[in-house]
Design brief:
Layout (H helix, E strand, L loop, with lengths): L5 E2 L4 E6 L7 E2 L62 E11 L3 E11 L1 E11 L3 E7 H8 L5 E2 L5 E4 L1 E8 L6 E7 L16 E10 L1
Parallel strand pairs: 1-5, 2-5
Antiparallel strand pairs: 3-8, 4-12, 5-11, 6-10, 6-12, 7-9, 7-11
Length: about 210
């Protein structure tokens, strides 16, 4: 027996841009795996001739030394921020959605020209959801309860909030961004549906 998802009746439809060319994860088994970025630091103190300083109590003098016997230390942190894309923005949706367990809310747009998808969401109440970007054909499989490939670069599986910024290229089918609160995606909603709806603030724009 084929199990079907319940989709909300309101579906955003615009004809402005295409989709990424590459495949992502499989919505039937948790999809893509995210890697962790790791970084290590090492510091070596040396005297002027390049040999390690081994004299007891010796401190290398610096121009901004705050005082005798103290070495100034400066820590620089680098953060990556997503900037607003260039071009004219076309709003797909902005507002609040409430999804019961077993519900999904799709937003679809057609193929016209290259564009940048910019979306941001936050689960203000309830469990984590899946925000998945599909090609149209894969989305049809997904909503029928079958295994489907989603585009990893444009998706945020098992998340309570994220921002996505994705360059899209025209292809021969629509793209669909789905808010999913079912057990078919990577996240696993609680089984007490009446007590655990997900309330999501969402904003989606296309720049071209």
């Amino acid at each position: 027996m084929t199990r079907r998802r319940r989709f909300l009746s309101s579906v955003g439809v615009v004809a402005v841009a295409g989709c990424l060319g590459g495949d992502g994860g499989d919505a039937s088994d948790g999809g893509a795996t995210d890697g962790d970025d790791t970084a290590g630091e090492s510091t070596d103190e040396a005297d002027g001739d390049g040999d390690p300083t081994d004299e007891p109590g010796a401190v290398e003098e610096t121009a901004d030394d705050p005082g005798e016997g103290t070495t100034a230390t400066t820590t620089t942190e680098t953060t990556t921020t997503l900037t607003t894309p260039a071009g004219n923005a076309e709003r797909i949706v902005k507002g609040r959605q409430e999804l019961e367990e077993g519900e999904s809310s799709p937003f679809r747009w057609g193929v016209v020209d290259p564009a940048t998808l910019d979306y941001e969401f936050e689960v203000v109440d309830g469990p984590a959801i899946d925000v998945l970007l599909f090609r149209g054909g894969q989305f049809e499989l997904f909503r029928q309860g079958q295994a489907a490939d989603w585009i990893a670069e444009g998706s945020a599986p098992d998340s309570t909030g994220d921002r996505g910024l994705v360059d899209l290229e025209p292809i021969d089918e629509d793209c669909v961004l789905v808010l999913d609160h079912t057990r078919f995606g990577p996240s696993d909603p609680p089984k007490n549906a009446l007590d655990d709806p997900a309330i999501i603030d969402l904003e989606v724009d296309l720049y071209r």
